[in-house]
Amino acid sequence: MLPAVREDSERSLAVVTGASRGIGAAIARALASTHDLVLVARTSDALVGLQTELAAAGARVDIDTADLAAADDVGALAQRLAARAPAVLVNNAGLAPSAPFVRTADDELARTLAVNLVAPFVLARALVPGMIARGHGRIVNIASTAALKGYRYTAAYSASKGGLLALTRALAAELADRGVTVNAVCPGFCDTDIVRDAVDRISATGKRTKDQALAELASFNPQRRLVQPAEVATMVAYLCSAAAASVNGQALAIDGGETA
Fold it and tell me: In this predicted structure, what is the pLDDT of residue 10?
């Protein structure tokens, strides 16, 4: 973990988990003009380049590390973050395993739930008291269209994201009169490493080429394309802004109309 940077009293602090690449990195870039940042990933090396990029643009950026599948790591991270009283928490880190339901191993289920659901719960629980004390806070959970509809071979992932959406709604109701909003953003198939990994898995079966696999995933979107990380990040930045003060407890799909 790198040394803390002094916070500017005019800029609130935002935490982004899973910030090293894809949607998380895009969110960090979108928030950097309005917030100081703590970026979280499993290793600091994965974040140094992004930290340098954002710092060069004038942002104040710290790095913290944790394995969000490990309860001890999550608990320690929660304590460190709570001490800094951030105003914004973006629970972006996630796993997206794919397997037939009956071949989903117990350890894969446990790890998926730990990263996608338990870690957001623990981090929010640690940071909400500071938000309530301030009278202002924003929690944005990056869920998925899998929280809104069914996909084959994604039982563990869908269960975790469905739980994250339920957590979002419960917290939104509980915190609505405390100045804290809680929302979920639900992207469809997005142009990220997770989708590229899925393409590799599909093509490895020999039934489809990589191009065919990619086209199949893009076809879920009525616009026949993958969602771009920057599109998700723009929504997150809006939800963290004063303009979204009345947006609370929502599941905002970014999917080209897939779940319409």
Answer: 65
Whether 151 is a known active-site residue: answer no
In the numeric block, the tokens 């001890």 are attached to 72
List the 88-91 sheet strands across, edge first: 61-65, 36-41, 13-17, 88-91, 137-142, 180-187, 251-254
Q: How far apart (Å, rounded) are the C-alpha atoms in residues 243 and 181?
A: 12
Band of pLDDT at residue 159, cut at 50, 70 and 90: very high
Check: pTM over 0.85? Answer yes or no.
Answer: yes
Q: Can you give the pLDDT at residue 5?
A: 36
For residues 131 and 195, state if they share a domain. no
User: How is the chain split among helix, strand and coil, in percent rounded to 5?
Assistant: 50, 15, 35
127: pLDDT confidence band, cut at 50, 70 and 90? very high
For residue 65, tell me if it sits in a domain. Answer: yes
- d(C-alpha 120, C-alpha 90), whole Å: 9
Q: State the residue range of the domain holding 193.
A: 189-226
Catalytic residue among 151, 153, 157, 238: 157
Tokens 């929690």 identify what position?
A: 139
What CATH code is carried by the domain that includes residue 32? 3.40.50.720
The CA distance from 112 to 225, in Å, is 26
